[in-house]
Design a protein that fits this description.
Layout lengths: L2 H25 L8 E5 L23 H14 L3 E5 L9 H10 L3 E4 L8 H10 L3
Parallel strand pairs: 1-2, 2-3
The chain binds iron/sulfur cluster.
Length: 132
């Protein structure tokens, strides 16, 4: 094993110890859950701003069922606020479904969008489902 490999091994072991300790502290109520979770729902965007790393895709983005399962976990952990960002979150076909689901699970919801895909009809739909 060379020195680089040894250093990498040390980092991996340390990362695992830190992660285990946080899990342990959380399990014993010593670490509060995050108040807010911001989810990058997609890397896709209909704009191409020069300063931004969005565009393309993440390869495998979370499915509707996967994010709903994670939202269930956030809710049980005591997370209060769930914000959906991107890329452009309105490009996800399941956007309203996810927003509504998070609200039903007791999370305050919001989203960050460039609003270019926002029609009056969709705006009304979102406003009915947003809890902020
Ligand atoms: S995600 Fe926002 S900043 Fe990035 S390209 Fe789209 S509109 Fe521009």
């Amino acid at each position: 094993m060379n020195s680089y490999e040894l250093l990498l091994l040390v980092f991996k072991v340390e990362a695992k110890i830190v992660s285990s300790n946080i899990d342990l502290l959380y399990a014993h109520g010593k670490v509060n859950p995050p108040n807010t979770v911001v989810w990058d729902s997609t890397k896709k965007c209909n704009l191409d701003c020069i300063h931004c790393g969005s565009g393309g895709n993440y390869g495998e983005e979370l499915s509707t069922e996967e994010i709903k399962n994670i939202i269930d976990q956030f809710s049980s952990f005591g997370v209060k606020h769930f914000q959906i960002t991107g890329g452009e979150p309105l490009l996800r076909a399941d956007f309203i479904d996810i927003l509504e689901y998070a609200g039903k699970r007791g999370l305050k919801t919001s989203f960050a969008s460039n609003v270019t895909a926002l029609t009056k009809t969709r705006q009304n739909q979102y406003q009915k489902r947003m809890s902020l």
